[in-house]
Amino acid sequence: MYSDYAEAARYFDAALARDPSNPFLLENALTAHVGLGEIDRAVPIARRLESGGHVSQIANLVLVAEQMKRGAWDEMLADMEAGRSAAPLVDALLRAWARFGQGRMAEAVEAFDAAAAQSGLRAFGLYHKALALAAAGDFEGADLILSGEAEGPLRATRRGVIAHAQVLSQLEREADAIELIDMAFGGDADPGVGRLRAHLVSGEPLPFDVVRDATEGAAEVFYTVAGALNGDAMDSYTLVYSRLAEYLAPANTDARLLSANLLESQERYELAIAAYASVARDDPAFYAAEVGRAEAMRKAGDIDDAIGVLQALAAEFPDIAIVHVTLGDTFRSQERYEEARQAYDAAIALFDEPARGQWIVYYVRGITHERMDIWDKAEADFLQALELEPDQPQVLNYLGYSWVEMKTNLDEALDMIERAVAARPDDGYITDSLGWVLYRLGRYDEAVPHMERAAELMPVDPIVNDHLGDVYWAVGRRNEARFQWHRALSFDPEEDEANRIRRKLEIGLDKVLKEEGAPPLHPGNDG
Q1: What stretches of residues are TPR repeats (predicted)?
Q2: Between the N and C ends of the chain, which has fewer C-beta atoms within 10 Å?
């Protein structure tokens, strides 16, 4: 699957000019144009694939979406009846929305119920049935489903909560809608949700606009499936669904942001930047799009432009913590620690009361303080992060490892790192930390298997291989120690570390420790 969509589209379009019926070229040109969001250009290619007798799921998806875009419900249903299948996950739901588009509400409800009865489709079918009922004005019926009273609870997604709040508003149950929003989002409501809540507080009724017609219902099907596939299927495949959702409902900003995120994951940064930039300034999700755009710029190497975007955003949205956090992360990635700290300070100043999700901000500010050699503040930040999220393995490891390096609180550090390893047994850095704290405690034999495991997990990391060499030396396995130090040198360590490794190879670890004024190796309690 080609993820360089623009280049692929140019290449396969040119190739098709010479060989217009080649199914390989047609399929790849189709995929490229869909990846670019050029559905209108993809449609004739999909038709050529189908007319040539070639089975293509993407072609079927495109052709069904094009029919629903035109409102050609009879045509679409007839083609599906004749054998065209978009995909098992979507066929039943699209048929139901087509019945809705025909004005056959009773048949549409039956079709949604039939979809919900299929294995793995219960939640999808019920959610879309509720949207259809609300779009038809049956807000009581929609509320019964969305509240869980009719068929049991549904998983609360952002769009699902917004849809339910709009339904409750139409039923003049503003207080219930506000309670729903507060339960779902707490203090982490984004500006879009915050604006919706403010309307409810003012008593202004909310229109139901999550899905207004069958075409937008079909778009919601594609978006729902894209959300379900995201992280489990290939990004290029998931992108097909999010792009079709955009095509059918251009106002669906969530689909646009998902497409941008998928492009970013595929390292198609220019396309991701363009997708983020397509979100209008007056859209409630504009700030989120700008944060994404800046992150894509940073990954593309446009650091100054990314910082400029985030600084402008922080000035425009000073009350949104994630904007300041992202600016801080960008400064920290460039080792501009004072500017990073100021950004994190601005984010933390916005916290009204402690919440679990805030741990990450204290953690990254703690890293920043540690890099600035302000250990008392770094330690306080790490401890605050653990107070909010006591078993967070990254924080446990970072603080525990720092204490090990400082030769302080070693027993507590060991406990922290053991808890971190239990939570993430396949994390090489954390496993290395456990081996290293045992080494620092003089429990060399116990350190060996953990350091060997870390080297298995991270075989080309210079620090891990250097540590394994030290542990081998401490238990008398001198040749293996020298071998690991040579390996560490081959993986391009920092210059000061490289010089220290060369010195160990020259005179041995014991003499290096003596030169450094460090305590000599001595076994602790290995029992």
Answers
A1: 321-354, 359-392, 428-461, 462-495
A2: C
The length of the chain in residues reads: 527
Amino acid at 410: L
The secondary structure of residue 476, as a DSSP letter, is: T
Query: Within 10 Å of residue 161's Cβ, how many Cβ atoms?
Result: 19
In 249-374, alpha helices (H): 253-265, 269-277, 286-299, 303-316, 321-333, 337-348, 359-371
pLDDT at position 81 is 93
pLDDT tens digits along 468-497: 999 999 999 999 999 999 999 999 999 999
**Helices 269-277, 286-299: crossing angle, 10 deg rounding:** 160
Torsion-angle region of residue 40: left (phi > 0), alpha (psi -120 to 50) or beta? alpha
The four Cα atoms 74, 223, 287, 264 give a dihedral, to 10 degrees, of: -120
CB 278 within 8 Å of CB 243? no
Tokens of 118: 């299929």
Q: What distance in Å separates the CA atoms of residue 322 and residue 137, rounded to the nearest whole number?
A: 37
Joined together, the tokens standing for residue 141 give 């019926």
* Residue 394 DSSP SS3: helix
What is the rounded CA–CA span in Å between residue 327 and residue 344?
A: 8
Distance CA 303, CA 333 (A): 10
3-51 pLDDT per residue, tens:
689 999 999 999 999 999 999 999 999 999 999 999 999 999 999 999 9
Give DSSP secondary structure letters for 513-525: HHHTTPPPP----
| DSSP states of 353-375 | S--GGGHHHHHHHHHHHHHTT-H
Q: Are 468 and 455 in contact (CB under 8 A)?
A: yes
Q: How far is Cα 178 from Cα 161, in angstroms, rounded to an integer?
A: 11
Of the candidates 378, 365, 373, 369, which has an alpha carbon nearest to the alpha carbon of residue 329?
365
Q: Which pTM value belongs to this model?
A: 0.82
User: How far is Cα 128 from Cα 134, in angstroms, rounded to an integer?
Assistant: 10
Task: State both tokens at 116.
Answer: 């919900």
The CA distance from 124 to 334, in Å, is: 44
Q: Is 125 helix (H, G, I), strand (E, B) or coil?
A: helix
Q: Domains in the chain and their CATH numbers?
A: 427-433+441-523 (1.25.40.10)
Report the alpha-carbon distance of residue 224 to residue 212 in Å, rounded.
Answer: 16
Per-residue pLDDT tens digits for 388-446:
999 999 999 999 999 988 889 988 999 999 999 999 999 999 999 999 999 988 999 99
